[in-house]
Write a structure and sequence with these properties.
The chain is an alpha+beta fold. It contains four helices and two strands. A two-stranded antiparallel sheet has the order 1-2. β1 and β2 form a beta hairpin.
Length: 88
């Protein structure tokens, strides 16, 4: 089995007017941008929400867990409301 090569890249982002950096693999960064676009939110707004909700650990880890949780909970395809369907 061949291991996937996914280097960690340090990126800068402004959260609530403060510049910070996060170290994430491209797959997590791309997924985070996809989540932000689907919610019609800025990347900074999504990361600020993640930052505000975390109780411990570093921001990079919190972002990875957020992205993982997002896709595990089936939010990737949008909610029923976003798809124009009624729940029930």
């Amino acid at each position: 089995m061949t291991a996937m090569k996914s280097p960690v890249v340090k990126r800068s982002i402004v959260i609530a007017g403060h510049k910070t950096s996060v170290s994430l693999e491209d797959a997590f960064w791309d997924s985070l941008k996809e989540i932000a676009a689907a919610r019609d939110a800025t990347l900074s707004d999504v990361v600020a929400g993640i930052d505000g909700a975390r109780s411990q650990g570093n921001l990079s880890s919190a972002i990875r867990l957020y992205v993982l949780d997002h896709f595990r909970n089936g939010e990737a395809g949008g909610t029923r409301r976003e798809k124009g369907q009624r729940g029930g």
